[in-house]
Amino acid sequence: VGGWLMAERFITPYLFAVNSCHLQGSLCWYPGQVGAPEHLLGRTANTTSITSAATNSTVSLAEGYASDSINTLCDPNVCQPKLTVKTKEPNDYHERHWKSYMDYPVDEYTLGQTLRTAVGGLSTAQAYMERHWDTFLTHQDLKDLKAAGVTHLRIPIRVGGRISYEPPNGVEAWALKIWADLHGAPGSENGFDNSGSYLGVSTCHGWDQNPANVQRTVDILTDIAQAILDEGLKDVVTGFGVLNEPFVDCDQNIVRNYYNNALTILRSLLGEHVSVFVGDTFRATRFNDGFWTDAEMHHDTYLDSHPYHVFFEQGRAFTPRQHIAYVCRHDSNDVRLCCYDDPPQNTIPSKGISRIIGEWSGAYDALPTAMTPYLMKQIAANGEAPLLNRTLSKERKAFLRNFVEAQMVAYEARDEGVSSGWLFWNFKMEGGAFAEWDFLRGIREEWMPPVPEPTVASEDVYGSCLDIYNKTNDDYMVVNEYPDPRTLDWNQWQGWGADDDLVMSDPNIPDVTYGPNPWYLRGWLLPMCLVVACVALLRLRRIVVHKRREKLGYTELNELK
User: Fold this and answer.
1) How many angstroms separate the CA atoms of 239 and 261, rounded?
2) Cα(114)–Cα(14) distance, rounded to whole angstroms?
3) Which of 268, 408, 308, 407 has its CA nearest to residue 10?
4) pTM of the complete model
């Protein structure tokens, strides 16, 4: 359940589009905003204008909800965007001629900073966020998730987020289990916006190199677990993620020591059978060294991995069959890299920790960190997000169905016994730009299949991954890569590459003139070739001169004994 207790801009872009009316205490809505009253649905920003909301410094939660502004749309002629953050150049892709500009808040930290400048300060900020928390996740959502076969909800929580540990209303009625997820740590464990603090660089060092931040994380985890215990929620909150996506440069000794402390705390407070999952630092093989393999101590523990196809340019450019092939080979093999009792032979699955794919989606050709700034720019300019009512073609939905089924099969790794399942990210999205991340939309449009019973393997229902590959239509028309690769700076890093034979042997790979430059067009190659050529010519000249002198009877001095 991403975007609810902890907000992410690509999930709920309108929440971050704070305007001058909001800072005056208004709770006006944007067109198509999740949670808006039904009578506003389908209306545009110009069909309904707001009236002035409370403007004194004592705006309270109750007053905010009583205001007429809760039932109106924000008028773009009155409500001016609050662009409070100077953007930082993205580091997961690089555009030519990128320039910084002023933007809406980019993470929870800057969102909180902006809201606290409102008339009424903290009370106005609280009213704004409470409105989101009370409307984004609904009872009908929970009912629909259960009907689709969902058994567990992973709910991200950030340090300094909402001080409330009550599960969403209706969870118990629909027999859904909650796995709490500490999604952001003090200092940021990865520098991503989804940690709550976007640093502009991907690194763990804001957290692991600051002992005070590590200790604060331990204290916060303890407080949350204690609150769950005090509220009598142990039967509902049955799992806990101790740190989301710590980056690859995390000090492994610090990370593992924190994991061990977290396990001890959670088991002591929430019981021996509470499930505990830990981030793989984007290198699952690091943990295939005897980590948490004791059956008595480490039962119900999971190594959490997040495979996505949109965070590297070569993946976004894949043909439909290449995507399925990448799932069948790369993603499937990655699941099998851990965890075993007999590394490196890897023949006996661990009796303690096992794998879980804690995030994955149907997204395959649009990069969120590139698309989201475009959405926010358009909201600032027009008062409305683009692609709100985006529809998916029949062909695209057919491919999505295969792509999703292949991932379900691969991530369960039925025959190996090393995986315990998966969680899809996310349960719903605001608007249509990121429809492929929207589980409930996928269920409605039937490109997301119902989840089989826990005792039934997806492979038994949908066939093997290669079966799905063979039936996939390889029509490249369903690929609409964003950002356009022609706008990228190919002298800079654009993500990792794929070299698997099955992936790269697709005969339908498009013949394009953009994308990663071939080796003979790389910017660094010409200078290097000139240097090599000059050295070679000098060496050849010396050899020729030496041979000529030998013929004339000369002897080089360095050859004399």
Assistant:
1) 16
2) 14
3) 308
4) 0.86
